Amino acid sequence: MDQAIAHEQSLSRAVLINRKLGNLRGGARGAALNINIMSYASVRRRFAAYLVDWIFKGLLALGITASVEQLFPTSSLRDLFDLGFFALAFFAYEIVPIHTRGATLGKRLLGIRVVGAEGRFISLWHSFMREVIGKWISGLFFGLGYLWAIWDRDKQAWHDKLVQTHVIRSSGRARS
Fold it and tell me: Does pTM top 0.90 for this prediction?
């Protein structure tokens, strides 16, 4: 009986969210956001997107390391250049796409996106706070902040709660 009530409440929330977010217009730099919301993204789907992103970031890191070694074969500043290029690559791969499209490559491949509380793309500052500070906090205490999404009603991890974002299943695209 309790499961039936919980399921009914979950469906009601999904319908309300679909109505609320599906009808809103706006987003990054005034782009219209057309979201077709199925539901909050499952923890399993989010983890799969994380693995895809991890693979791409690993390949990117190998490319950066090889390039820096070719450009500066004997430089004592090679580690500093590596660090700078890694920071730039992280900014370009994680922070900017979350701000402009709501998704990294892994999230896009798995059909999920990050939206703010009103269903719009989040600001560059919120993207930075979510991806850097928030995910660092989520990783504290043996990753409890990431696991929190399993038990949370809105499937939010701590980094989502910090900047009031939701990760949703979506096939919608942003248009200018």
Answer: no
